[in-house]
Q: What sequence folds into this?
């Protein structure tokens, strides 16, 4: 890839939530492809060494691109060993010089690597399944009134990393919570979670971004390594699946999330080619 569009080091975007299965890896992958398609140089770090979902997603993508001879954009993927904090620090420093964004997918548990990523992040995105089971990761609520009792362990961990940033005189963290797997049926729960999140946002200092609906397509894309940003493209070999209304709506949700991040956009839309690794 050619020279960067933004001066200075890369912005670090971490996907974090100690609750497993909330959509961190799915969101990371969609964000990575959105940013590259917008002309940014993007690196990906998968800190979930055990599951390695993001790594496998990208491997599937590379294999699919090769099998179908289809040019698919790829981020720079840098493997980090289990618990290897020094490797993470070195990767962040090195990738920072020639990338616009470093997207870090954290594991669904509290690890030393995850803490380090939370400290390093300029933007933290916490996807949350739309239920009070997931809400519990952020704060304890009174069962009767749904009033917030106190922040939970994860919120306190983020607070701790924020303090470290402040001490190091780095700009404040932009913490974004997005609701995932939103159901069209469950209006009552949806409204309750929304009200509780609004209240909590002010209390522990995050902002809410538009989330993703529950859609089968998110689960179907992993084996091919494709994202909603890739499907429906007019390709010479026409192997792609057709775009449905639901896919278009889902893609809009991904773009709405990216827009809500309010990132400085690269001016090279369409300039990305196969891989920038
Ligand atoms: N909006 C959605 N609609 C339907 N399925 C979804 C959606 N988002 C994520 N999923 C599915 O939910 C499961 C968990 O998603 P994902 O692996 O992205 O979560 P995670 O937070 O990275 O999990 P972990 O904590 O285990 O790393 C996957 O099977 C994924 O395909
Ligand atoms: Mg994951």
A:
């Amino acid at each position: 890839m050619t020279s960067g569009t933004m001066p200075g080091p890369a912005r670090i975007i971490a996907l974090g939530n100690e609750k497993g299965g909330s959509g961190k890896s799915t969101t990371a992958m969609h964000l990575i492809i959105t940013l590259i398609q917008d002309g940014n140089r993007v690196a990906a770090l998968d800190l979930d060494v055990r599951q390695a979902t993001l790594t496998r997603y990208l491997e599937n993508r590379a294999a699919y691109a090769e099998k179908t001879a289809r040019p698919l954009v790829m981020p720079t993927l840098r493997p980090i060993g289990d618990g290897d904090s020094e490797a993470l620090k070195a990767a962040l420093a090195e990738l920072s010089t020639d990338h616009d964004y470093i997207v870090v997918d954290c594991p669904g548990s509290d690890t030393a690597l995850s803490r380090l990523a939370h400290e390093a992040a300029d933007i933290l995105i916490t996807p949350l399944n739309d239920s009070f089971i997931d809400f519990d990761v952020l704060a304890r609520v009174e069962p009767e009134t749904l009033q917030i009792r106190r922040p939970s362990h994860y919120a306190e961990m983020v607070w701790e990393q924020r303090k470290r940033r402040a001490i190091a005189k780095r700009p404040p963290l932009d913490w974004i919570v997005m609701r995932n797997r939103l159901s069209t049926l469950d209006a009552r729960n949806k409204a309750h979670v929304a009200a509780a999140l609004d209240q909590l946002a002010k209390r522990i200092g995050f902002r809410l971004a538009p989330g993703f609906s529950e859609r089968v397509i998110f689960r179907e894309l992993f084996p091919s390594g494709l994202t909603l940003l890739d499907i429906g493209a007019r390709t010479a070999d026409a192997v792609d699946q057709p775009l449905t209304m639901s896919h278009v709506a889902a893609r809009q949700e991904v773009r709405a999330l990216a827009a809500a991040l309010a990132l400085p956009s690269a001016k090279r839309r369409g300039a990305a080619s196969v891989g920038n690794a």
Summary: The radius of gyration is 18 Å. The pocket of magnesium ion (ligand 2) is lined by residues 24-25, 48, 51, 53, 105 (CB under 6 Å).
